[in-house]
Amino acid sequence: MVNVRMRDEDGAVTIIVAVFITVLFGFVALAVDVARMYEEKAQLESATDLSALAGAQLLWKGKADAEAAGETYVTENPSVNHPGAYNELTGDLVEAKRTQEGTGCRADVSGTGSVTLDPDGTIATSQLYDCVESTVQSPFEFLFASVLGFGDRTITNTSTSFMGNGAPRGTQIVPWILRDCPNGGQYPDEAGVATPSGCPYEFTDSFVDDPNSPLVTQFEESGLFVGGSLAYEAIGCPLPSGFKNVFHDNNTYMALNRGDAAYVPCRVAPGQRVLTRGGSLGAQLKTALEGRGATTAACANEAAFNSALSRTGDGDGFVTIVNRNPCLVQVAFAVRAAPASRVPDVDDDVAGTPTGMQAQVNEPGFPNASRFSSLGNNQAIVIRRLAWYYITGYTSGSQSAPIGVYLRAVDNDNSILNGPMDVCPVGVPISECAQHGIYIVKLVN
User: Fold this and answer.
1) pLDDT computed for residue 258 by the predictor
2) Around Cβ 106, how many Cβ atoms within 10 Å?
3) What are the residue boundaries of the structural domains of the chain, listed by start?
């Protein structure tokens, strides 16, 4: 009797162990396949992120160029389950949406630089941005878990990148204001205006350290170039959604001219109204810039220039900022502003960018004589655009003026998206519209 019971119990244990091993094998098989699935999802996410970024960097050129760049990235970066080329028949899709063509991606941008997608338009403060959406699909076959009834799946990932106008801030802003040039494409009343001396500015993506080269600009004060009283954090920044005038001597220009490298400027964006400031841009300016790391040794260095920027190689001034260094600074272009008697509200904090640059001098029939007259001291000006300037050295002598080259740049760092990118009107050359200098590319999801 005892032996019979023991044999029965042995059989029961064998069944239990067999069932346990089967279940355990099933869980292990499922875990292996789920891990493979997550790995494939991660590869697709990386591919769509970088595809969207690659496309967004060419949105300024147009829809076709942006989509081609995104599609090429997918083709050249296959994954385990998506080894072939970009293929819309299998669910891949790179789509560029530009506000110029009546499309775009809607989002809300806060003052801290965060971006909230708003596809349904439910956020009152959201607006349309130029964007690129990249979607990649790949089939996924369960190797082990299929015995448990799991069928094959399709893995999909979508990423979105925005392009907008830069609202730079921080120690790379320098209070250098240049008189802007007429631009009939962006401002129709400037069509046919005589070109002032110094225009147009020459942008290049080439490193040049010879001050005698026509590509090099020497920053010396004249009617073309002056200092500007930009706000900085110690004296209070503009409203989160607007701009503030600074009508006193405690400003970035005076701080930099005193050799003070410690200030942190507030953000600067098109539409801001400030005053010009006089004074020498000599040894004190060089001391302040060197205190921030913009030394001759650092800046007169072509290898550093090449490591900071990814260049197009055709001399058009377009670069992608790979990483920043102290020699890469931001400058503003401005025109004379209307007096407060005619635009009284611009003397105060302005919530939002002044629509249509209403703070510009607007003398019908005489925009050249009013907007583009020489800049002097204590004159109200309005910033119209921004550009990167790469310092390549300093002039010799007591003036010690910085020398360098202008760049048109795509910056995919964490700068603030100020607003949708300026679109190029039909019939206006891209090179004219692209003068606006600083574009920001952001991956938003």
Assistant:
1) 62
2) 17
3) 2-163, 169-414
